[in-house]
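The protein record now logged underneath.
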Amino acid sequence: MAKQIQPIFILPEGSSRSSGRGAQHNNIMAARLVAETVRTTLGPKGMDKLLVNSIGDVIVTNDGVTILDEMSIEHPAAKMIVEVAKTQENEVGDGTTTAVVIAGELLRKAEDLLEQEIHPTVIVKGYRIASEKAQGLLRAMAREITEKDEDTLRNIAITAMTGKGAETAKEHLAQLAVKAVKSVAETVNGETLVDMDNIKIEKRAGAAVEDCELVDGIILDKERVHSEMPKTVKNAKIALVDSAIEIKDTETEAKIQITDPNQLQAFIDMEEKILRDKADKIIASGATVLFCQKGIDDLAQHFLAKKGIYAARRISKSDMDKLARATGGKIVTKLDDLGKDDLGNAGIVEERKVGDESMTYVRECRNAKAVTFLVRGGTEHVIEEIKRAVTDAIGDVAATVKTRRAVAGAGAVEIELARGVREFATSLSGREQLAVNAFADAIEVIPRTLAENAGLDPIDMMTELKAAHDKGQKTAGIDVFKGKVMDAWKEGVIEPLKIKTQAISSASEVAMMILRIDDVIAAGTKEHAPRMPEGMPPEM
C-alpha cells in the first residue's frame, strides 16, 4: 500500500501565489491598464477624467498624477506605475502622463518578446542599454536656453498649459509663470537654483481666469485681527513673531486662591501689564505691521490698534518663512530680542476682499525672493484645474532655468529619439537587438497617441513624421490643430529636456523591475487569525 504524502503548508491560510509566465502576464496587464487609463488625456486634444471619491467630492482633470492618485489603485504592479507618475511630478512637476504611457508601452512590447520565448533577463538588458543610449541622444538633441530668453521660456509655459483648463488665458498665465520663476531664481556658484516652495499659489473662486495675478510678495489667507486697525499700511515695517502675544498657561495644573477682592483686581492688573509690556515691545521696535505665528490676546489687539499697527495671527510656519524671504525680515521667537534690524519691509500691506473672504496682501517688496500666484476662475473645479496647469507651467519653466536645456515638443523629440535608438540597434548582435528595437517602437507611442487623441489617422501622421525626420527635419512634430506636420520649435511647442530624460529613465526602470518579477506572493487577509501548528503545547 502506497504511503500517503501529507501536503506541506509554508504560507499562512488565505495567502495566494502566482508564478512564472502567469505572474508576469498579470503584472504587465495591470500596469498596462493603468497606462491606458491616462493615455487619452495626453496632449492638447486630450480628454478629461471626472473622478468621484468615497465622500462624493468631484475632480475634473487631465493631469496624470492627480488621476492616478485619486483612483486608489490596489494591484501591486499597478502601484509601481503610479510611483512613476509621482516621481515625475516631484522631479519636474509635469510630464506625468508621458512617463506612465511610455512605461505601459515598454511592457506591451516586452510581452510580445516574451511570447517569442525571449528570456526576461535579455529584454531587461536590452532595455537598459537602450535607456542609456536614449539619455545620450536626448542631451545631444537639446538646445541651450538662458534666463534672458524670455520668449522661449514663455513658449515652454504655454506648451505646458495647452490642452488644460487654463488654455483661454495661457498667454497671460505664461507671462506670470516666467516672471514668478525669474523672481525666485538664485545663482549659486554659477548654478541657477529655483526653490518652488518660494512660489505660493493661492486660489479663490470668482472673477475670470484673465484676472489671475502675480504679487511680488505674499498673499495671506488672513484678515486683520481688530476692526480699529488700519486697512492699508504704506512703507510697512513688518515684525515676524513666533511666540504668543497672550498670557501663557502654566505648564503644570495650578490653583490660585484669592481671599480678598483687591487681590483679584491686582491679579487682573498684572495680566493687563504683562500684555501691555508685550505690545509696547512691538511698538518700540518701530513696527507698523505684525504677523504672529501664534495667538494675539484681545487686550493686546486693542493696544496695537490704538497705535495704528496692522496685525494678523496664526500664520502658518511655511507662510512665515515666505514672508521672511519676501520682506527681508527675521522671525523672532523672543519678544525681548525684537529690534529695528529684525523688521522686514514692504511697499504696501493691505486687507482686500477677494470673493467673499478677506485676505492680506503684502506687496511691493524690494527684491522679493518669495512671490504669490493668485489663481481666479468661475467655479471651484475650474480653479483647481487652472492651479494644476499653472503648477505644471511653473515647474517646466523652473526645470528649463535650472538645466538650461530644452527640446522640441509635439512628438518631434520622440520620433528623432526612436530613429537614433534604431540606428544604434543595428550595431548590436544577439537577442538584445530585438529588445532595443522594441524600446524604440515603445517611445513612438507618444506621437501616435497625440494623433489618436486629436482624431487624426495615426498611421498617416506617423508616416509623414518619419518622412520629415528622414529628410533631416529634426524638430518636425504634429500640429494637432491643423492635422499636419509642423516645425515644433519654430511654432513654439517647446519642452524642458528634464521632462524627457526623467520620463525615459523612470519608465524604463519600472518596466525592467516589473519584467524581473516571476513570482507574486500575497499574504492572506487579516481576517484569518494565525493558527498554532499542530502538536504545539497550548498557550498558558
User: Anything to note?
Assistant: The chain has a mean pLDDT of 78. The first helix runs from residue 21 to 39.
